[in-house]
TrEMBL record:
It comes from Rubripirellula amarantea. It comes from the Bacteria. InterPro entries: HemC, Porphobilin_deaminase_cofac_BS, Porphobilin_deaminase_N, Porphobilinogen_deaminase_C, Porphobilinogen_deaminase_C_sf. The gene is hemC. GO terms for biological process: protoporphyrinogen IX biosynthetic process. This is Porphobilinogen deaminase. Gene3D superfamilies: Periplasmic binding protein-like II, Porphobilinogen deaminase, C-terminal domain.
């Protein structure tokens, strides 16, 4: 293997944190690495998220660097990584998951229930918008783009009453003082893979694959494989109004999933569990839940 290991990363503070996390973990194993910073389409395109934006906008540039042998390792937020199998890359490791919750960020840490009537809430995510509207159809949910810092500046300038962010990003960026309400899983199911990292290598790079195995967390991996398999079976990208959360408790893999209409008026909830033996348990549970969701009309709700 080429030493040091080259880690491709986007240059947002969150992406850099994630790449530096992997570098420091490698360092603790006595493995040298360097960061290869790149600019991705997702960081420069400030247009609201809609059907015209491509799935994989955050991850493609990073994967390109691997394909072009400019880097050996790609660190992704797993929820931004498309579920389509790409034969050129292998998911080498999924480290222990960070907090999965979505947060409602506002100066007074209001809960969803406490938001004033018709409050203006910023989120570019159809999943968050639909779940908010399913609880509070009066809310004025409006798109917001940019990295975490850009979004917070729009809250500060009172362009929005509140914005939605993943708690994982807030915690990783050491912004624990940020006033916010942690949505319960009943209120807001996270995006498949939220709070988890996915570390990819080139399919033929066995050395890099082996070097990263110490970072893989079995239970997290089985959980996110279940969530991502559900998303794939429903043919939803990261833009679809689909929430899923799986966790292993007492040897059982338990998963909740939701598919919503964009206005939140229709919502299909499913739950299931299975013995957590390996990744095949995850695929089986995802198949069961997605089948039930499709029987109930999920495919018609998913906008492509
Ligand atoms: N789509 C952007 C993105 N990708 C990963 C995270 C947060 C960290 C994570 O979920 O792992 C975010 C920001 C957000 O949703 O608030």
């Amino acid at each position: 293997m080429k030493t040091p290991i080259r880690i491709a990363t986007r240059q947002s503070p969150l992406a850099l944190w994630q790449a530096e996390f992997v570098a420091s973990q490698l360092n603790q194993q006595g493995i040298e690495s360097i960061l290869v910073p790149l600019v991705s389409g997702g960081d420069v395109d400030m247009a609201p998220i809609d059907g015209t934006r491509q799935v994989g906008v955050f991850t493609k540039r990073i994967q390109q660097a691997l394909a072009d042998d400019e880097a050996d390792v790609a660190v992704h937020s797993l929820k931004d990584l498309p579920t389509e199998i790409n034969e050129h890359f292998r998911l080498a490791a999924v480290p222990t998951r960070e907090t999965v919750a979505d947060c409602l960020v506002s100066p007074s840490s209001m809960s969803i229930a406490e938001l004033p009537a018709s409050a203006k809430v910023g989120t570019g995510s159809r999943r968050r918008a639909a779940q908010l509207l399913s609880l509070r159809s009066d809310l004025d949910v409006q798109p917001i783009r940019g990295n975490v810092q850009t979004r917070l500046s729009k809250l500060e300038s009172q362009e929005f009453d509140a914005i939605m962010l993943a708690d994982a990003g807030i915690v990783r960026l050491e912004m624990n003082d940020l006033p916010r309400y942690h949505c319960t899983l009943e209120e807001m199911l996270p995006a498949p893979g939220q709070g988890a990292l996915g570390i990819e290598v080139r399919s033929d790079d066995d050395d890099a694959y082996e070097a990263l195995q110490f970072l893989n967390h079995r239970d997290t991996r089985i959980s996110v494989v279940a969530e991502r398999a559900l998303l794939a079976r429903l043919h939803g990208g990261c833009l679809a109004p689909i929430g899923a959360y799986a966790v292993i408790e007492d040897g059982r893999l338990k998963m909740s999933a939701v598919v919503l209409s964009q206005d939140g008026l229709t919502r299909l909830d499913e739950q299931g569990e299975i013995d957590a033996i390996d990744e095949s348990s995850a695929l089986e549970l995802a198949a069961q839940l997605s089948e039930r969701l499709i029987e109930r009309g999920a495919a018609e709700l998913i906008v492509r």
